[in-house]
Specification:
This protein folds into 2 domains: 163 residues, FAD/NAD(P)-binding domain (3-Layer(bba) Sandwich), CATH 3.50.50.60; 121 residues. Helices cover 28% and strands 32% of the residues. It is globular and about 65 Å long. The C terminus is likely disordered. The structure holds flavin-adenine dinucleotide. The site of flavin-adenine dinucleotide has 30 residues, from helix 1, strand 2, strand 3 and strand 12.
Length: 317
């Protein structure tokens, strides 16, 4: 039986691993030209994900790549002193098994687990799926599969092609989240810095094995983006929400304000200046709409199913 999985993020490679173990012949098509290596954002794995990683034999690699973040310092706008939190206590109260890892590290580990047994098509995307399993691609020649699974993230193409427009499955709840990569000027080691204001939160953290740091911006917004890939509008929204952060932030000397400063100087559209930022000091690599997500009433239709975020969950694209 030939199965096509769309998306090599987290769900796609895990599904491919288990399907091959059960004797299926699996092809994974991934829009990115190569397995992603940007690091992405940190994700926390608790018992269910740890158990699956253990059964796949990859738990030692997952633990080896742990971010090591175990402390959080929260600065509230207007407050005189920061609050310090021992994150390990919170995590151990939540679950008896936990590790935090960068999403792209996790994706790479799962990809490696079955890469020799799975056919990967990078730099391609499904454009049409017919009820008899006929699949068309942007680049590859048309092929036929017994089953197609959409594991292609929050803005799933498979879900749109088979189940209908994304607007049927998501509703904007008035917030945006963006993650930037910056040089780790504050030499963060095991610490998450958080700045909390009314309707906005900014955070900065590093990871043991990463030379750079991540700055995360979460903020309320009345208007949704017209399109999730509208980068000029993303920058405009970020600027509007955070460009006064520098004078108010007690973290100014510790690097977080560097992210805010970067935002306030982002040019409105693509430009050479942004290109320099992109290649040298910072990448706007992850911006998303926070959706109040309702999974499709059935996660399968005919020969097509959904896994991971497309089938119900919150994630990043
Ligand atoms: C800041 C942040 C923190 C988070 N923290 C946690 C956490 O602590 N714990 C947790 O469990 N989850 C967390 N999440 C959510 C988690 O990242 C997602 O649930 C998870 O990545 C979903 O995996 P996925 O495989 O479904 O989708 P993704 O990881 O989004 O992968 C989808 C893949 O499909 C590819 N793709 C997209 N379109 C196409 C196409 N047309 N054709 C082919 N390929 C395509 C993409 O390039 C990508 O590789 C967090 C998310 C964010 C944004």
């Amino acid at each position: 039986m030939r199965i096509l999985v769309s998306g090599a993020g987290v769900a796609g490679p895990v599904l491919a691993y288990w399907l091959t173990r059960h004797g299926f012949s699996v092809t994974v098509v991934e829009r990115a030209p190569t397995p992603r290596k940007t690091g992405g954002h940190a994700v926390d794995l608790f018992r269910p994900a740890m158990n699956i990683s253990e059964k796949m034999g990859v738990l030692p690699r997952v633990e080896e790549r742990a971010t090591g973040t175990n402390r959080m310092t929260v600065h509230q706008e207007g407050a005189r002193r920061p609050v310090r939190v021992d994150l390990s206590k919170i995590f151990s109260a939540t679950s008896d098994r936990h590790v935090e890892i960068m999403r792209d590290d996790l994706s790479e580990i799962y990809y490696d687990a079955a890469r020799d047994d799975v056919e990967y098509l990078f730099g391609d995307s499904i454009t049409a799926i017919s009820p008899d399993g006929g699949v068309r691609f942007e680049n590859a020649a048309p092929r036929r599969f017994d089953l197609v699974v959409g594991a292609d993230g929050l803005h799933s193409t498979v879900r749109r092609l088979v189940f209908g427009d994304e607007s049927r499955f998501s509703a904007f709840i008035g917030a945006h989240l963006a993650v930037l990569t910056l040089p780790n000027v504050s030499a963060l080691d095991g610490e998450l810095l958080i700045h909390v204001g009314v309707g906005r939160t900014a955070g900065m953290y590093g990871a043991r094995h990463l030379a750079d740091a991540r700055v995360l911006f979460l903020f309320r917004s009345e208007r949704e983006l017209d399109h999730h890939r509208d980068v000029p509008r993303q920058k405009e929204l970020l600027r509007g929400a955070f460009d006064d952060l520098i004078p108010t932030s007690r973290l100014a000397v510790r690097g977080l304000a560097q992210g805010a400063r970067l935002i306030s100087t982002l040019p409105a559209g693509p430009s050479r200046a942004l290109l320099r930022l992109t290649t040298k000091s910072a990448r706007l690599h992850n911006s998303m709409t926070v959706d109040d997500y309702s999974p499709s009433p059935t996660a399968s239709r005919g020969r097509v199913g959904l896994a991971g975020d497309p089938g119900g969950g919150l994630g990043a694209e």
